[in-house]
């Protein structure tokens, strides 16, 4: 720019000496002021950038260090360039002044028109030479402020920007508007609303003894099964059986293909106390519904969580199906896989046919047969029975259900126009009812059936109907409590003691108080094995253990000997707490306190079954008493009592007990050396 002014002023031959010196000085002063202003603006902008980078760079120090180094280098380069430019401007102004002085002395002053043209050209050239710095400053100011300022509304020469003045709006009109009015409001507690079928179940009477109903008064049971019931010594049915058996039989009155009125039958859910007769409530109607079958196909599938429980249900099915032509098969892993395959189906003349009408299975073995046994078909399945349904859901065993559903609605090799074609049901429409197809009806049974709709939804129930006598839901503030009905003849006690006194208390109950036979529960199989060894070494009590340490055959033998009265104390984990009907149990002892109320209910439910009397003791440490008592009372128990054992009652057993402890230590060391513990 300085060179341009030098060349331009070389042509001003008529300007006077005084005027030219004054004009050159004023222009030089303006140029220096602008250079200083630009330096200050650039330095301020760089400082803002550095401050921003350092504040935001706390999370990424490595990157910011590199940026700062680069900015420092650029800053140094800018300073060098400014110094060079200022030096050039000073030199140019000096040369311009000398040239103008010499030219004015020879040529005189220019005209006024030429002065105006030169000033306009100079201003235009000035704005063209430095547009970027002004725009950069404006951008930085908008980033820092978030709104427009006066510096952004002016051009490089200090005049107002015509785009801003022409709009006729102030800077406040174009700024951001902050939303307000957000005040702390009290949020109302959401009350849980259960589906109608859960909130309004069909009630089952709780008292068994006073609500027995004679067989002849229960509608729907055929004479053939009535004779079998009488032959097994059953003259009256329990309340749960009186309600559930007619409800299931009602869904098959029109045959296996269609339900009542031609619609798909509703699924049945039953929540009744332990020992109330739930097994017979589904065995009788299923067998009666299948009595008229012509071709042998798997039409009923009962799924249970443990092998022992599967064995128990299989025995009940087998006893009532005997002599009817119906065949019951159990697949629970107690036999080799090949032997179970032979029991399920056979092949004759290249044709495969089923040998089972009713299958009792555990989830794992059932999935094995669905995936590996090509001759195992569920395409004719009519009843899916899920016993101990809450455990099947809570223990994440429901993965088998999707496998069963796929196998049921698997497209067969026959024609799609077959009357037995099955399609996974959707919304009920006229088209979905024609032609009719065999429905899949689910029957759920548990003593502690959950009321959580999300968990029950995993089972894919169709318009379910709930029969319940076990628990209700009470809402209090922000949480919901579930209350259960305990067996009528059960008496509950808890005893506060130390961990070291627990074995002595157990021996005191058996040897001195004569609570035999007794079922004792621990929380782990290691604890069960240690206690078994200790009681065995102490002597005087016939004892056995029941846990996953033993094989299925060994567990079955232990249960059989316990039922026969050959074993006085059976020490078990929670494997025996679910559903297993052990006859003659007069006393249940919780050696380790259960952590959950459902576990406690299933444990104490092994006694006081079918309306009989029973007693349950729970050993508690001092820190466990408050929470345990509150948990049981909240669940609906009204008879929990505290029992105190005097220390002098245990003194006569202590010396012998110390000897047994010494022997126990040696026995455990020996087992560990042989990798048996």
Quickly describe the structure.
Helix 1 runs parallel beside helix 3 (about 60-105).
- Computed CA radius of gyration, to the nearest angstrom: 46 Å
Catalogue the unreliable spans.
Answer: 1-15, 96-116, 124-173, 413-418, 475-480
Q: Quickly count the domains.
A: 3
| SS strand fraction | 5-15%
What is the strand arrangement across the widest sheet? 1-12-4-11-10-5-9-6
What oligomerization state is this entry in?
A: single chain
Question: Would you kindly provide a written description of the structure presented here, covering whatever features stand out?
Answer:
The chain is α/β, with parallel strands linked by helices. It has three domains: 2-159; 197-413 and 434-470, P-loop containing nucleotide triphosphate hydrolases (Rossmann fold); 487-673, P-loop containing nucleotide triphosphate hydrolases (Rossmann fold), CATH 3.40.50. Helix content is 45%, strand content 13%. Strands 1-12-4-11-10-5-9-6 form an eight-stranded parallel β-sheet, with helices on both faces. Strand 19 (587-590), helix 20 and strand 20 (614-620) form a beta-alpha-beta unit. Helix 2 (17-56) packs antiparallel against helix 3, helix 9 (239-250) packs parallel to helix 10 and helix 10 packs across helix 11.
């Amino acid at each position: 720019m300085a060179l341009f002014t030098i060349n331009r002023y070389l042509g001003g031959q008529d300007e006077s000496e005084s005027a030219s010196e004054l004009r050159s000085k004023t222009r030089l002063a303006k140029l220096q002021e602008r250079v200083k202003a630009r330096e200050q603006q650039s330095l301020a902008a760089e400082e803002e950038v550095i401050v921003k980078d350092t504040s935001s760079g706390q999370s990424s120090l490595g990157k910011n260090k590199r940026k700062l180094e680069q900015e420092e280098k650029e800053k140094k380069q800018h300073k060098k360039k400014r110094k060079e430019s200022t030096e050039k401007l000073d030199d140019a102004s000096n040369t311009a002044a000398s040239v103008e002085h010499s030219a004015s002395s020879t040529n005189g002053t220019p005209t006024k028109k030429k002065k105006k043209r030169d000033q306009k050209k100079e201003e235009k050239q000035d704005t063209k030479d430095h547009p970027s710095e002004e725009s950069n400053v404006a951008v930085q100011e908008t980033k820092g402020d978030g709104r427009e300022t006066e510096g952004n509304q002016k051009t490089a020469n200090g005049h107002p920007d015509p785009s801003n003045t022409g709009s006729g709006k102030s800077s406040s009109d174009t700024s951001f508007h902050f939303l307000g009015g957000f005040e702390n409001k009290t949020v109302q507690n959401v009350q849980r609303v259960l589906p109608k079928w859960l909130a309004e179940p069909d009630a089952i009477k709780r008292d068994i003894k006073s609500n027995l109903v004679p067989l002849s008064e229960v509608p729907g049971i055929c004479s053939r099964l009535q004779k079998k019931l009488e032959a097994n010594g059953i003259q009256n049915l329990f309340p749960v059986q009186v309600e559930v058996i007619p409800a299931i039989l009602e869904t098959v009155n029109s045959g296996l293909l269609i339900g009542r009125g031609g619609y798909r039958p509703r699924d049945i859910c039953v929540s009744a106390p332990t020992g109330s007769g739930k097994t017979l409530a589904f065995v009788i109607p299923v067998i009666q519904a299948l009595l008229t079958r012509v071709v042998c196909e798997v039409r009923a599938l009962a799924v249970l969580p443990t092998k022992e429980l599967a064995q128990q249900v299989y025995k009940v099915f087998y006893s009532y199906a005997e002599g009817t032509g119906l065949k019951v098969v159990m697949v629970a892993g107690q036999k080799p896989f090949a032997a179970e395959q032979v029991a399920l189906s056979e092949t004759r003349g290249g044709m495969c046919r089923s040998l089972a009408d009713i299958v009792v299975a555990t989830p794992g073995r059932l999935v094995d047969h669905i995936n590996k046994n090509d001759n195992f078909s569920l395409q004719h399945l009519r009843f899916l029975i899920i016993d101990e349904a809450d455990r099947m859901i809570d223990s994440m065993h429901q993965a088998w259900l999707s496998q069963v559903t796929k196998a049921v609605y698997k497209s067969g090799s026959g024609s799609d126009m077959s009357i037995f074609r099955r399609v996974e049901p959707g919304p009920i429409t006229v088209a979905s009812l024609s032609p009719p197809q065999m429905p899949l009806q689910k029957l759920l049974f548990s003593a502690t059936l959950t009321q959580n709709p999300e968990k029950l939804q995993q089972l894919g129930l169709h318009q379910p109907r709930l029969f319940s006598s076990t628990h209700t839901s009470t809402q209090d503030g922000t949480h919901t409590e579930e209350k259960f009905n305990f067996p009528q003849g059960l008496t509950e006690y808890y005893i506060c003691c130390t961990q070291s006194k627990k074995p002595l208390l157990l021996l005191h109950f058996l040897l001195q108080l004569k609570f035999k036979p007794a079922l004792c529960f621990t929380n782990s199989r290691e604890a069960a094995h240690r206690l078994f060894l200790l009681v065995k070494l102490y002597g005087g009590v016939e004892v056995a253990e029941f846990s996953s340490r033993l094989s299925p055959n060994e567990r079955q033998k232990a249960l059989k000997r316990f039922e026969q009265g050959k074993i006085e104390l059976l020490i078990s984990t929670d494997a025996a707490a679910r559903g297993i009907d052990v006859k003659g149990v007069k006393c249940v002892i919780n050696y380790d306190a259960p952590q959950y109320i459902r576990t406690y209910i299933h444990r104490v439910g092994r006694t006081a079954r079918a309306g009989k009397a029973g007693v349950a003791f729970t050993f508690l440490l001092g820190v466990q008493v408050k929470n345990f008592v509150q948990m049981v009372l909240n669940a609906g128990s009204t008879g929990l009592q505290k029992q105190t054992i005097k220390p002098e009652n245990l003194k006569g057993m202590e010396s012998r007990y110390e000897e047994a402890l010494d022997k126990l230590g040696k026995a455990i060391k020996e087992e560990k050396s042989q990798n048996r513990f």
